[in-house]
Amino acid sequence: RGKDEKLRVRMPKLRRLREYKDKRKSIDDAERSIFKFKRSSEEKSKKMEKEEKFFRETFMYHREIRVLSRATAQRSVPSRRRVDLPLTAGEQLDVIEAGQGHAVICRNAQGRYGYVLVEHLNFR
């Protein structure tokens, strides 16, 4: 019986250690998911830089990029050329430059730049 009592005393301690290890594993998993998030944000920032570089070369835009206003796309419009920005209905766009004529230069949420006709935009 003396040996059984010692075993009974040790069992709860082992269970606590297992619970602690389980909690520790969940903390490690959470930390790993944070690092995955950082990697994806780094990839996203590299893609944004690439799009900005393409924008500056294509549109010969050497000034600071400033957002003049925000607009919402009224309808979906596919792009016919690389310089045109494809739209989806309800998409939020940043207006970068309002040029002469019916087209403005906009940026979408993915960081892509292009011309959009004013007819397709809703300014609030």
TrEMBL record:
Any GO BP annotation: T cell receptor signaling pathway
GO cellular component, one term: plasma membrane
Residues in Helically-extended SH3 domain copies: 55-121
Pfam families associated with the record: hSH3 (PF14603)
Keywords associated with the record: Phosphoprotein
Coiled-coil parts of chain: none
Superkingdom in the source lineage: Eukaryota
Name the UniProt record assigns to this protein: FYB2 protein
Organism: Erpornis zantholeuca
Source organism phylogeny: Eukaryota, Metazoa, Chordata, Craniata, Vertebrata
